[in-house]
Design a protein that fits this description.
This protein is of the alpha/beta class. Helices cover 27% and strands 29% of the residues. β2, α2 and β3 form a beta-alpha-beta unit.
Amino acid sequence: MIIRDITNYIEEIAPLSYAEDFDNVGLLVGNYNTKVTGVLVTLDTLEETVDEAIANNCNLIVSFHPIIFGGLKKLNGNNYVERVVLKAIKNDIAIYATHTALDNSKVGVSAKMCEVLNLQNTKVLIPKKGIIKKLTTYVPFAEANNLREKLFEAGAGTIGNYDNCSFNIEGKGSYRGNEHSNPTVGKKGELQFEEETCITVTFESYLEGKILTQLFKYHPYEEVAYEVITLNNSHQNIGMGMIGEFENPMNETEFLQLVKSSFKTDCVRHSKLLGKQIKKVAVLGGAGSFAISNAIREKADAYVSADFKYHEFYKAEERILLADVGHYESEQFTKNLLVDYLTKKFTNFAIRLSEKSTNPIHYI
């Protein structure tokens, strides 16, 4: 088994195209073709994480946070990032990061937070734009059904809870091949009119390569006429944060105690208590102040996230209860999520959960 086998499976739930533009995800250190001896799953990759991987004969670290975020201009070991990268390279250990690719997954970080709080009827808080593409192609009428099925097999035509979705228009196409052509129908140098079907399907952007491979393989024409465009539509099942409901509402103090115990934290910073029942709750792992307005817009009674600054608590405007559980605390279950997922697939392979806490923040 090689590294690509592991990462391809991770990318089935967290395709790298889901990641935000500012992020640095994927294989940060190492080679995809390296044979894997074991996998260590962690939230952060520190020097002690690499030591743990060495001790457990794991040559692949799957990390939530990327150890290399900005550009590295030198590798002199002058800071913890450089030391981690140097130690990993010296010991032939690869490092792979998922970060916002998993943040935007419908079964990712925020989904795990909902599970921990036992929220029901969940949906994405901020659906992501720009990751739905549309393919339009033109095929002889007699070949349309076969090509359409092959595109569906590659993942095209899946929209929300529906699959095999397409739009089809019958018409007449024309073409004329030059002296170097080898037309499937008609003769070179002669104008040909052909009864064709225009097939249109949408798909998630990470499937583009697979879908185009099917298109070129099963389209009968020597030259395939097609268009691929990126849509501005939001994807209802992909995006930042989630929102759900408790089966039974509770008062604010009960809710904050539940949050404190569920996320195993010594401190929950929160906005002013409003004396209201908590039923609908929004969550977002990591630094989530940017989504306060979204949580209010969705009429959430409370919003659980992390890294709220002083003035950002004012954004509650007595309309919502903000609960800051801490960055590490909000994402701590992510590594469990990845271990459970990988273990189900690779049953006879060493998938280890890092036993080290990488939380840099302590309370007194």
